[in-house]
Amino acid sequence: MIEAADITEDAFLGGQLRLMQKRSGHRAGHDAILLAAAIDAKAGDRVVDFGAGIGAAGLALARRVAGIRLSLVEIDPELAELARRNAAANAIAAETIVLDVTAEPQAFASNGLSPDSADVVLMNPPFNDPARHRGSPDRARHTAHVATEETLHAWVHAARRILRSNGVLTLIWRADGIAEVLAALSRGFGSVSILPVHGEAGRPAIRVLVRAVKGGRAPTRLLPGLMLNNESRMSESAVTQILEGRAALPLVEP
């Protein structure tokens, strides 16, 4: 059990969402909020958040899009418990499932995630390359941040299995790994949209947000990059609106 002294409560979406999270280890931030802003769900959709952690991305999406049927999937029981508590504290209906995203299909089915049952999957998988990134000695932080060679393929495969035909997968990944993302999506996905995310204008992208459709056939779209900060290093008003949940990203279909 997590002691109260080991938990902080932090405001997201300009205070619309308050989340408890562990003081140490992986902590939710901009990546989760940008991912939520990139998803075009609608009321009634079954939405599954892979690697949900404390529930930041899924709950931020639920705050913007009322009426989704949200499942938060997390391998770490302590983080899953915080996700459950966060959903309750914010009066958001969500089920929390303790499950390894790389588990066998039977484990998914026994938790209500049968094939062709989801409309939307979102994911923020571990994406740091262990060959170039020194993993944290904190086990939870290491699990959340460092990927193996098979991580992305395994997560995308699991998403493909539970998504309905024309269901949508949206993920965030490090920008220099876009080739890995496209390779993982090459089986079963199409109609790919890519949004580069830049920390500063004039600098290379640090993240990519990617939207793909199961069975989609439209050409791949590379969208204009999102600049988190302008040249004066002040947050842009459009970015502020996104981070406060008042606007969506251009991956979202009109």
Task: Write the SSE topology.
Elements: E1 7-12, E2 17-22, H1 30-37, E3 46-50, H2 56-64, E4 69-74, H3 77-89, E5 94-98, H4 105-110, E6 118-123, H5 139-145, H6 151-162, E7 163-174, H7 178-185, E8 189-198, E9 205-214, E10 221-222, E11 226-227, H8 237-243
Parallel strand pairs: 3-4, 3-6, 4-5, 6-7, 8-10, 8-11
Antiparallel strand pairs: 1-2, 7-9, 8-9
Notable characteristics:
single chain, 254 residues, Rossmann fold, two-stranded antiparallel sheet, 11 strands, 28% strand, globular
What gyration radius follows from the Cα positions, in whole Å? 17 Å
Name of the CATH superfamily? Vaccinia Virus protein VP39
**Structural class by secondary-structure content:** alpha/beta
CATH class: Alpha Beta
The number of distinct structural domains comes to: 1
Helicity level, as a percent range?
Answer: 25-40%
The protein's oligomeric status is single chain
| Overall strand count | 11
Topology as H/E string? EEHEHEHEHEHHEHEEEEH
Low-confidence stretches: 138-145
Instruction: Give the overall shape, derived from the CA principal axes.
Output: globular
Write down the CATH topology: Rossmann fold
Q: Helical region count?
A: 8
